[in-house]
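haha ok so turns out i had the wrong file open the whole time. this is the CORRECT one, sorry everyone. sequence first:
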Amino acid sequence: MERSVHRNPSEPIRLFKSDLLESFSHISPATVLVIWIPVILVFMALAVLHLPPSRFPYPLLGGLLVGWFVWTFTEYVIHRFIFHFHPKTERFKRIFFVFHGVHHAQPLCRTRLVMPPVMSIPLGVIFYALFYLVIDRILGAPQWLYPSYAGILIGYVVYDMMHYGLHHAKINGGYLANCRFQHMQHHGSCPNMRFGVTSPVWDYVFGTMPDAPRKFAPKKRADG
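then structure:
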């Protein structure tokens, strides 16, 4: 596996010697839609079917918002603490280069801008288990389970589509233009800041936005 910055921007960096493994590292954005849109529709249908008629549509809308909110936090945490983890051993350096380093080495590679299914599907299963444990078993609010899970999946799909678009779509202004500026700055001058892709809110909360105010630290007075 190669780890250096590729010198030919039109040719993707090869990550694996095996052609089969290499093929799994190249993903079209359409793959994300084909896999996850049907899953979202299924959970939306389950949400509607399991809602008491007297309470419709409040748990549905509330659950979607909860799921989306959880996704924005998840997106930030994964990007900052997992994708930008700095391992010390060569083996783990290679692993994290495959996860995300290759994207920074070659940010315009169109087939490495969305999360591959070998990562997204296990994460989807893990999050459903967590949502079931917390919402259904601990909080005892099963009517919120399906819409909340649909909400986090919608957040993920929007994230992948936005990430692709921020690198390749023509964006003239508005919110997306600001997101594009933040993300290009992340790839350029501040790779260890500006981790939000769909929203900068957590960068402001955790102080990883360069313009965020710093905590006041009084200067020590010199004696005499």
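The radius of gyration is 20 Å.
again sry for the mixup
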